[in-house]
Amino acid sequence: MSFARRTAAHAHSPAAAPAMQTDDIPLRETTPPPLRLLLCLLACLCLTPALGGCGSRNTATVVQDGPLPTRQEAAIVRTARKAIGADYNYGGCNPAEGFDCSGLVWWAYQENGLSIPRTTSAQSAGGRPADCAYPRQGDVIVFRISHKGLHSGIYSGNGYFVHSPKTGHVVREESLRKDYWQSRLLTCRRYLP
C-alpha cells in the first residue's frame, strides 16, 4: 500500500480521529448578572454617539438652531405650546373659541405684551426677514399652501414649529424638516429684538 493510500485510509478510520475533550464541570457564565448588565449598559452608552441619533427625528433637511433662546423667545414658545390640542377655528384667536393659523401666532404674541399683525399675509410682510436656515425661537414661519393661500406658525426650536393646521384638526407641534413644509416654506419673520 502506498504512503498516500495509507494516509487517506488512516484519516478516515474512527480510531484516527482525535478524541474530543470535555470537562465534567457544566459551562456557566463567569461574569455575575449585575456586572453583565452594567457592561451591556456601558457598551450601549459608548455606541450611542457613534450611531448619530439612530431612530431620532428626520435630519434630511436640517434647520439649525442658533444661540440659546432669550426669555422673550422662550415665553412666546411656551405660550404657543399651551394652545396645543385647541381646535382649529377659522377666525379664532383664543383658546376658548379655537385658533386659525394666524390667530394662534397673534395670540401668543399678545399674551406676552407684543403686538403683531393679525392676518397671515400681514404677518408675512411685517417684522423683518429672518434666515429660515437659522430661525430663532418665536420667529413667525410662513408657508405658501396654494397659489393664494398662506399658512403661519411659530418656530419652537430643534426644527419644530407650533401651528393650527386646518378645519377638523387641533393646534400641534410639527417638524419643519418634513418635505411637505420644506417645499412650501415662503419666509421667516422676526418680530422680537
TrEMBL record:
Question: One Pfam family this chain carries?
Answer: NLPC_P60
Q: What's an example GO BP annotation here?
A: proteolysis
Q: Which InterPro entries match?
A: NLP_P60_dom, Papain-like_cys_pep_sf, Peptidase_C40
Q: Which GO terms describe its molecular function?
A: cysteine-type peptidase activity
**Region of interest called Disordered, as start-end residue ranges on this chain:** 9-28
Q: According to the UniProt entry, which residue ranges have a biased composition of type Low complexity? A: 9-19
> What keywords are assigned to this protein?
Hydrolase, Protease, Thiol protease
* NlpC/P60 domain ranges (all copies): 70-192
Q: Which domain of life does the protein's organism represent?
A: Bacteria
Similarity field: Belongs to the peptidase C40 family.
Q: Which PANTHER family match?
A: MUREIN DD-ENDOPEPTIDASE MEPH-RELATED
In its UniProt entry, what is this protein called?
NlpC/P60 domain-containing protein
Source organism lineage? Bacteria, Pseudomonadati, Thermodesulfobacteriota, Desulfovibrionia, Desulfovibrionales
